[in-house]
Write a structure and sequence with these properties.
Elements lengths: L6 H12 L15 H15 L8 H11 L5 H9 L7 H29 L7 H19 L8 H16 L10 H4 L11 E6 L5 H14 L4 E5 L4 H13 L3 H5 L4 H15 L5 E4 L6 H15 L5 E5 L12 H19 L2 E7 L3 H4 L21 H7 L2 E7 H8 L4 H5 L3 E8 L7 E7 L4 E4 L4 H15 L1 H7 L7 H10 L1 H23 L1
Helix pairs in contact: 1-2, 1-5, 2-3, 3-4, 5-6, 9-10, 13-14, 14-16, 19-22
């Protein structure tokens, strides 16, 4: 097949020329033309050398022409002039997979079926089942954006790609909030669920909206599903937050003329942002969510996005008589969905009323109302399926409801605490934000830098604790023997040092308050 490579092939090749590590993301079998395959093989030759050579036009022409004389100076010149966007790499690759299926695989399957049907025995049920399974396998690889079955050689090749991304600092998925990012091991990684929960009135929805707002400003692919609040209230909060305006100002008839100018300014700012979507859908189902995710990924030409749903448990599928069973089934369905379509789900859920119903008689005991994982409604299913769980708490909220006349209530700062209660990598800690309900705004309360560093470092050593027990073969010893051996090991001494530093710094911070 000596004809020019398809446009998707050319754009994909251009992306690889610009960022050579992308070659590890691509399988040559999806190229449709022989020229496309040979151009890819040429780039792979340069990439696999002990001393990689930058694939400039001359290099590609010389090596490529050796493989295929159709790779000429004119063709390579046109290749370097083709229009492309590096950020659309995944879109080009997905499009190539689809084209390959339509033009190559489907034709191959149909020819095979025709050949079988014309044979002496004809088609039997096994033949039809085999053909159907081969079609499903091809479609799964396209929809999953990757193979789902690996030899261990293939698995290690894929793992190699992940390691290269980690070396380049590209295997972290931002939340929108750089302060939260510091303490999350992988961020809002594709294929996983994060849950944020709190009691009513604490500010979880405002915190979620603040993350969405930051994602909008950073042009991060995101979709915000507002199930609890209507369109007008959602937009009031967003505009209030983006412009530091009071909700009274935003909603007042007297200031409507001023608001007209602010709204127009925001429209001009956001109209060209193709990576954000607002969906005000009071009766969202999991099937609807699947449709929207597929649609947005196609419109944005992105393989990954963050989906925020407020409130998650207001989805139609969670409304059933047997709550525990319904929650478990639907959390499993959502988990399947995020894995299949490579997005991160940030779900906002309600806490049970345990804190609201707890009676405390001392102002000093307000901290006892802080949430725990057990306070999530139907916490078993939601907590188990969540990679990260965040809990929100505002002590002043409870001070105002339980001790409204205490002078300390008026004097205290309104601090929103966001506690990382569960994550598979990274520390379990608490971030503090100044909460300004009047303007729907949240501002990070800067943590002492020394404290921040120690928390992150200590987490690293905490994660190594179990590995150390294994290496020292301590699991066969008694608790006292384990303690003695661990304390005297190198990592045990470092662990103890960091624990001491944390305690000392906490004490120092208390004395300076």
């Amino acid at each position: 097949m000596k004809f020019a490579p398809a446009l998707n092939e050319q754009q994909l090749i251009r992306c690889i020329i610009t960022d050579s590590d992308l070659i590890l993301e691509v399988e040559s079998k999806y190229f449709i033309t022989q020229i496309g395959k040979d151009l890819f093989k040429t780039l792979k030759y340069f990439y696999d050398r002990d001393n990689p050579v930058t694939p400039i036009q001359t290099n590609i022409l010389n090596e490529g022409n050796r493989l295929n004389d159709a790779i000429t100076e004119e063709l390579t010149k046109n290749l370097f002039e083709v229009e492309y966007k590096l950020e659309d790499f995944q879109f080009y690759y997905d499009s190539l997979k689809n084209d390959n299926f339509k033009k190559v695989q489907s034709e191959k399957i149909m020819k095979e079926m025709l050949k079988k049907s014309e044979s002496k025995g004809g088609l039997d049920r096994k033949d039809i089942r085999d053909f159907a399974e081969s079609i499903v396998t091809e479609l799964d690889e396209i929809e999953y954006h990757d193979k789902v079955v690996f030899t261990y050689g293939e698995a290690l090749e894929k793992y190699k790609k992940i390691n290269i991304k980690r070396q380049k600092g590209e295997y972290f998925f931002r939340t929108g909030d750089p302060n939260l990012d510091k303490f999350l091991g992988e961020g809002f990684a594709p294929g996983y669920i994060t849950t944020l929960f709190s009691a009513t009135g604490i500010g979880k929805s405002m915190y979620a909206l603040s993350l969405v707002n930051k994602q909008i400003n950073r042009f991060m692919p995101n979709a915000y599903f507002s199930l609890e609040l209507g369109f007008d209230t959602t937009m009031d909060r967003l505009i209030s937050q983006r412009n530091d305006l009071s909700m009274d100002f935003v909603r007042s008839q007297e200031t409507a003329q001023n608001m007209a100018g602010i709204i127009e300014k925001e429209r001009k700012t956001l109209e060209n942002n193709k990576y954000s979507r607002l969906i005000v859908e009071p009766s969202l189902s999991i099937d609807n969510l699947e449709y929207y995710v597929k649609r947005f990924r196609n419109e944005m030409k992105k393989d990954y996005l963050i989906v925020t749903i407020d409130l998650l448990t207001m989805m139609k599928d969670f409304m059933g008589s047997n709550k525990a069973e319904v929650y478990e089934d639907n959390m499993n369905r959502l988990h399947y969905l995020v894995r299949r379509y490579n997005f991160h789900l940030f779900g906002i859920v309600q806490a049970n009323r345990e804190a609201d119903n707890t009676k405390i008689t001392k102002f000093e005991d307000l901290h006892k109302l802080k949430p725990s994982l057990n306070n999530i409604k139907s916490s078993g299913a939601i907590g188990e399926r969540s990679r990260i769980v965040l809990g929100a708490f505002r002590e002043k909220h409870y001070a105002m409801t339980k001790f409204p006349n205490d002078p300390r209530t008026e004097m205290m700062d309104d601090i929103l605490e966001i506690s990382i209660m569960k994550q598979t990598s990274g520390p379990l800690t608490t971030l503090e934000y100044y909460f300004v309900g009047k303007t729907s705004s949240i501002f990070y309360k800067k943590m002492d830098e020394e404290m921040e560093t120690i928390i992150i470092k200590k987490s690293t050593f905490d994660n190594l604790f179990e590995q150390t027990l294994d290496k020292l073969e301590l699991k066969r010893f008694t608790s006292n023997e384990k303690d003695a051996k661990f304390v005297n090991s190198p990592i045990g001494k470092m662990h103890r040092k960091f624990h001491y530093e944390v305690c000392m710094l906490k004490d120092k911070l208390k004395r300076t308050e």
